[in-house]
């Protein structure tokens, strides 16, 4: 068995996102590190009435917490061959799962990343998801309204980024062109577009202040969330981690890489199940689940161990 662990991006945060990990002793250091940065225990924060779980800084930190806490379940299951790849902020979390940074460093970097993005983006911009028309047509429609292709998900699925009024026009034009889905996402930053070049530069400085660790023996193979390439050189990998804030990311290439590595089992860690849904389409025949589709950590471990 070869397991692909996919780390979620923003958008799916919800009050029950820590239901399987909240009481795990192995995850306690992750929650403690997050509390120092957020000022509140994330397990309590997500259940507070009126809590803004989709604010950029809070959302990015919560997604990393969910990924790292969920990873403790995978570690305990003892999977032999594992590949990790992350979507947007999940790309940073993947470095933690791969043993390149500890939880405290990942969460510090998540906060720095979000702060750099907020400073560069200002107000009034975001992302929209479009599915059901050709990728080239999605990109052309976005260009007509001054927006940018942010994420390639598949040949007929993408995310575009730009000012919210432009996104509304893009969604209307995409629906008129036959798109099955064209909606503005609950992300308030035009991630992975040239609008955030300054954020890439600032985040590169934050990464340079941290010191990646040599991955431990048996650590999973780390794939870059920018292009699906394996990360062998830490310096080159960190450059991509900064660049992906302001460059189009190719998630379709990440899924292709998982297929090429022979991944026959796929588990999404983080809020939601969007990556699991895409993996089911891209890796036909693979066993695919999101962590949140299970009722217990024991069930996850048994599923990973089944062949």
TrEMBL record:
InterPro entries: Ac_transferase_dom_sf, Acyl_transferase_dom, Acyl_Trfase/lysoPLipase, Mal-CoA-ACP_Trans/PKS_FabD, Malonyl_transacylase_ACP-bd. It holds the Pfam family Acyl_transf_1. It comes from the Bacteria. Its EC number is 2.3.1.39. GO terms for molecular function: [acyl-carrier-protein] S-malonyltransferase activity. Residues 6-303 form the Malonyl-CoA:ACP transacylase (MAT) domain. One of its GO terms (cellular component) is cytosol. GO terms for biological process: fatty acid biosynthetic process. Keywords: Acyltransferase, Transferase. SUPFAM superfamilies: FabD/lysophospholipase-like (SSF52151), Probable ACP-binding domain of malonyl-CoA ACP transacylase (SSF55048). Transmembrane segments: none annotated. PANTHER family: BLL0263 PROTEIN (PTHR42681:SF6), MALONYL-COA-ACYL CARRIER PROTEIN TRANSACYLASE, MITOCHONDRIAL (PTHR42681). This is [acyl-carrier-protein] S-malonyltransferase. It comes from Methylorubrum thiocyanatum. The lineage of its organism: Bacteria, Pseudomonadati, Pseudomonadota, Alphaproteobacteria, Hyphomicrobiales.
């Amino acid at each position: 068995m070869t397991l692909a662990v996919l780390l979620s991006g923003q958008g799916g945060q919800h009050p029950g996102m820590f239901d399987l990990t909240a009481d795990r002793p192995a995850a306690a250091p992750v929650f403690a590190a997050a509390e120092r940065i957020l000022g509140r225990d994330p397990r309590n924060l997500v259940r507070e009435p009126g809590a803004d779980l989709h604010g950029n800084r809070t959302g990015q930190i919560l997604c990393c917490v969910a990924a790292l806490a969920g990873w403790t379940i995978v570690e305990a299951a003892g999977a032999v061959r594992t590949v990790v790849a992350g979507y947007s902020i999940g790309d940073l979390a993947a470095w933690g799962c791969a043993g390149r940074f500890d939880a405290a460093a990942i969460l510090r970097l998540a906060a720095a990343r979000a702060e750099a993005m907020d400073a560069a983006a200002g107000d009034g911009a975001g992302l929209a998801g479009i599915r059901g028309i050709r990728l080239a047509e999605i990109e052309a429609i976005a260009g007509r309204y001054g927006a940018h292709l942010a994420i390639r998900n598949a040949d007929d699925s993408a995310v575009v980024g730009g000012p919210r009024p432009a996104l509304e026009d893009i969604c209307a034009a995409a629906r008129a062109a036959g798109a099955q889905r064209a909606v503005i996402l609950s992300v308030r930053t035009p991630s992975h577009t040239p609008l955030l070049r300054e954020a890439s530069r600032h985040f590169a400085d934050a990464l340079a202040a941290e010191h990646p660790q040599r991955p431990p023996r048996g650590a999973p193979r780390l794939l870059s969330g920018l292009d699906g390439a394996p990360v062998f050189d830490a310096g080159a990998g960190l450059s991509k981690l900064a660049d992906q804030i302001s460059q189009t990311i190719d998630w379709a290439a990440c899924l292709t890489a998982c297929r090429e590595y022979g991944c026959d089992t796929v588990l999404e860690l983080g809020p939601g199940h969007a990556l699991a849904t895409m993996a089911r389409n891209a890796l036909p025949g693979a066993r695919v689940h999101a962590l949140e589709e299970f009722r217990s950590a024991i069930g996850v471990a048994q599923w990973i161990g089944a062949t």
